[in-house]
Design a protein that fits this description.
487 residues, mainly beta, Immunoglobulin-like, 1% helix, disordered N terminus
């Protein structure tokens, strides 16, 4: 199933409601580059997005976190960073908030260090810790354990002769309990970690790999193989398996179902094209039972996989074989647990769309996050796509009267001294409240619209970008968000 995005509306940071007659997708970003590396559906029904931004923040690239409500309107936005490159690749909801895992350049030792930050439900930092060495260290994943402790998966270059997979356990406050590294005489990367059999860890990654970009098309190492490692609750390795052939094979994602282990990645050794998406099934000791590939004559990457709550798997990544005009597009496949394809979907425009993470939603659907430069404001923007269990793209902004939303106008925009809100709806609106919010998520002002055509001053606002939020009542849920540019 191919979806071409003919019209995709966007904001600098917050999405508009899309045309109900078109296929839905939301972009987030500014004039430069934003990438979405992870997304979760939160316990309140909303979503938390994480990645990197070059448009906002203080450095060359900063950590970027956005909290959306269930209608995909922003509740808060957080940028964290220093002078150089800082980003996160993993988000998980934990007791009392969220844990984000990534790496930073300036804050710690020289080169990159793993950073773990705990945020409360409003985006305030509770604590942040570094886990680094004097060499390059990258943070890939983090999970909360049953006792509220945290397992952090990363990479460290502080191992001779090459780098190793690094697993760290901390208490609930981020204090390190133990660490262990795993690897071979080559550069080895671990991308995801999960718990297994209640008291074990499974790590999926790549032996003799590299991680400059999961979508890199050049190779600078011995041919890579998918690597699966099992270790006990104290980080001691129990067994290690590799899977691959004559070419490069990369392991990116792992789930379990009963006693079976499923691995998703990319293979150059098997399949039809330069790379194909691969799905492997093993027993509980890592012995391969079967593998299947998906793709065409061009490259097709498998990056992220999740269980479907009604049974089966969602495999996601990027396809060039089936992309719009042979350009890279989002690629989503639903299979049963034997790898039989139920349906597939591609989603994108005429340029580049890359998936970085999938998350299984409470309604048995799936939500994808990544980047696009076919749509949006900047060089690359975050692209969010929600798909139901039947492969139909959903409107993320739901539960809102789209007729009413289309009747709200802000003009002029950009504004200098005075702006106006106009409500063209014929429906009587008893109360309409507007909030002006900074890019950091701080509410600067709030006022009630007392006429269908209402003016407001902007003299107190400095030049730059702001968000305006519309509520039906003063303390009600946000029903719409938009951008405000002040000259």
């Amino acid at each position: 199933m191919k979806v071409k995005l003919k019209y995709l509306f966007f904001l600098l940071l917050i999405p508009f409601l899309l045309d109900a007659q078109e296929n839905q997708g939301l972009t987030f970003g500014g004039q430069k580059e934003e990438i979405g590396y992870d997304i979760i559906q939160c316990s309140d029904g909303g979503y938390l997005l994480g990645g990197s931004t070059k448009s906002f923040g203080t450095g060359n690239m900063d950590i970027y976190v956005i909290k959306l409500n269930e209608n995909a309107n922003a509740e808060w936005i957080k940028t964290i960073g220093w002078k150089h490159n800082d980003l996160i690749r993993s988000i998980t909801e934990v007791d009392g908030g969220y844990i984000i895992v990534g790496d930073v350049w300036d804050y710690g030792y020289s080169l990159l260090d793993i950073i773990v930050i705990k945020l409360d439900y409003d985006g305030n930092i509770i604590w942040q810790n570094l886990y680094g060495t004097h060499s390059k260290d990258i943070g890939f994943d983090g999970i909360e354990l049953e006792d509220k402790s945290i397992a952090i998966l990363g990479y460290t270059r502080d191992i001779d002769p090459f780098g190793d997979i690094l697993l760290i356990k901390t208490d609930k406050d981020g204090n390190e309990i133990w660490r262990n590294n795993f690897g071979t005489p080559y550069d080895d990367y671990g991308i995801e970690v999960i718990t297994f059999d209640t008291d074990k860890f499974l790590i999926i990654g790549t032996k003799a790999g590299f991680y400059d970009d999961v979508y890199a098309t050049y190779f600078n190492s011995h041919d890579a193989d998918i690597m699966l490692i099992c270790c006990d609750k104290n980080g001691n390795e129990l067994w290690q398996k590799t899977y691959g052939g004559y070419g490069h094979d990369f392991g990116y994602s792992i789930v379990t179902e009963g006693e079976s282990i499923y691995i998703c990645g990319s293979t150059q050794s098997n399949g039809n094209g330069s790379f194909d998406m691969i799905l492997l099934k093993t027993d509980n000791e890592g012995n391969e039972l079967w593998s299947k590939t998906y793709g065409g004559s061009e490259y097709d990457y498998g990056i992220s996989m999740v269980n479907n709550s009604e049974g089966g798997l969602y495999l996601s990544g990027t396809t060039k074989s089936f992309g719009q005009n042979l350009s890279p597009d989002y690629y989503l496949i639903k299979t049963d647990y034997e790898g039989n394809e139920i349906w597939n979907l591609t989603f994108g425009g005429d340029l580049i769309e890359n998936v970085y993470k999938a998350f299984s939603t409470a309604d048995s659907g799936v939500i994808l996050i990544g980047k696009t430069n076919s749509f949006g404001n900047g060089y690359f923007d975050i692209l969010l796509v929600k798909v139901d269990k039947n492969g139909i793209i959903e409107n993320l902004i739901s539960g809102i009267d789209s007729t009413f939303i289309s009747d709200i106008q802000l003009y002029p925009n950009p504004v200098s001294d005075q702006g106006r809100f106009r409500n063209l709806s014929t429906t009587e609106i008893p109360e309409l409240y507007i909030e002006i919010v900074s890019m950091s998520g701080r509410v600067i002002s709030s006022f009630k619209v007392v006429a269908p055509d209402y003016s407001f001053n902007t003299n107190y606002l400095g030049s730059g970008f702001y968000i305006y939020r519309v509520r039906m009542k003063e303390d009600s849920k946000i029903i719409f968000t938009g951008k405000l540019i002040v000259n």
